[in-house]
Amino acid sequence: MTVAELTGTARLFRAGSPTFAAHHAVYGSLPSVTAPDAPDALIDELRRSGLEGRGGAGFPVWRKLASVLANSSVLADSSGLANSSVLANSSALANSAGRGSSQRQPVVIGNGADGEPLSHKDETLLRQAPHLVLDGLLLCQAVVRASDVSLYVGAASAAAVRLAIAERPDALHVRVLIAPEDFVSGEATAVANAFEHGVSVPRDHIVHLSQSGVKKRPTLVQNVETLAQLALIARFGAEWFRSVGTASEPGTRLVTVSGDVGTPQLLEVAGGTSLRRIVDACAPLDEMPRAVLVGGYHGGWVPGDRLDSALSREALAPFGAAPGAGVIFVLGSGRCGLESAGAIADYLASQSARQCGPCINGLPAMASVLGSLAARSRDPRLPGELARLADLVTGRGSCSHPDGTARFVLSSLRAFETDVRAHLTGRCEVHGA
Amino acid sequence: MTNSPQPEPAALLHIDWTRCDGRGLCTELLPELLARDEWGYPLARTGSAAGSAAERSDIAIPPALRGAAADAVALCPRQALKLTSR
Ligand code: SF4
Ligand code: SF4
């Protein structure tokens, strides 16, 4: 198959079957990165492609790779020094005995744990195109010279992943770890924790994982869609990648559309596509939905009359949303926004990993105030109290769960402002008086 | 006495929220820097969510409070505090 056929938005699922034979027939062989300058060349290609992480945070992919590579060589260069002069006392020396060069080699983890209940893209990709993900994983391993390579996946995709690994000799060393279905289990430090201690909860960190992650080794955690996109860029180049999408949102991305639509589905869309086009492709139940939740439960609502907005960082920023993990949840005009938001806030509060005080206490407090608003309690102080709590929890947890929940709650207050006013007088646009 | 030629790097007080139990000893030792929230957990007096959320887990320590901050780190019963720098 030639590259020319890969010009539409159908890129990731073109093999049409999860087998290695189908994958190889469509995409060809995995490019080699064994030449001395190949890792730098691939990092440069990724930089020019503009590929950003597809797990939610949207961090530039090339930077993470460059940072892990730099940290691994720094450690390799300085290990002699560390063993001799800096660590002079005996306990430090005892420690350093266990830190031979292999102990400092980078760890690469493909993250396929769709923590978002409304996202199915990672699972679907792993089940239908596992070899693109494995290609991306092996390329990252080669670039940062990692000794340990793993995939962290939901139970539903584990069998497909194991089958795919068994099909190819170059991937037999890839370990598979099953992620629990908790909201925060896919957070990067939770993933590192899962590998090191077997518990998928986030942990405190003062330095980035790329410097010190699993067992203090430089650790690269990359979402599985990101890995699949990386595998395509390694083959077909940055220019090809950018031939679809916009200058600031190049390439394609996977979105999971759900809610009040006739055909909830996974779509591969060009970056910067309007929400309207995406929603229309899924047979929405009404002409103008009340709102669309974009990004995920840590995302924000875009009101139904603003669906001309593009699926891009700039266009979504005013709504407190971002493309994130590609969740698009359509709220039909017949539903009360505050009721739906309250249910989501309840869920988010229940998903606190119960480690950090402000998160354990603040999230249920926010959910309860939002619940009172949804139940049309006539207390005019409720919106102010919700905003105060959202400010209070932000920045005060070991992961971004409080921040994301606060963002969602504030977005709900903004998007459903008229409902808030009606509810405070005991009325509701949907449920009447 | 000599003046140091360069300003020292900003000292930060890092809070490990997974360890902190909110009994508030640190807020008694560092009242200038830390208030208590309604559940007892330390709340930076500087830095707001609107400003930089990161400043609420890594709180800048003014030079005059470095000694008190070191005491808080040493005395925190849960070893939830660390001195770091930027
Ligand atoms: S902030 Fe919340 S979810 Fe994150 S680690 Fe702390 S308790 Fe867990
Ligand atoms: S002294 Fe330690 S455990 Fe107690 S509130 Fe302060 S940081 Fe938390």
From TrEMBL, chain A:
**A single Gene Ontology molecular function, please?**
4 iron, 4 sulfur cluster binding
Q: What is this protein called?
A: NADH-ubiquinone oxidoreductase 51kDa subunit iron-sulphur binding domain-containing protein
Aminoacyl-tRNA synthetase: is it a keyword of this entry? Answer: no
Pinpoint the NADH-ubiquinone oxidoreductase 51kDa subunit iron-sulphur binding domain residues: 342-423
Start and end residues of each stretch annotated as Disordered: 95-116
Domain annotation NADH-ubiquinone oxidoreductase 51kDa subunit FMN-binding: ranges: 47-230
Q: State the similarity comment.
A: Belongs to the complex I 51 kDa subunit family.
Give the UniProt keywords, A-Z.
Answer: 4Fe-4S, Iron, Iron-sulfur, Metal-binding
Q: Per the UniProt entry, what species is this protein from, by scientific name?
A: Subtercola lobariae
Q: Which Pfam families match?
A: Complex1_51K (PF01512), NADH_4Fe-4S (PF10589)
TrEMBL record, chain B:
Domain of life, source organism? Bacteria
Full protein name: Ferredoxin
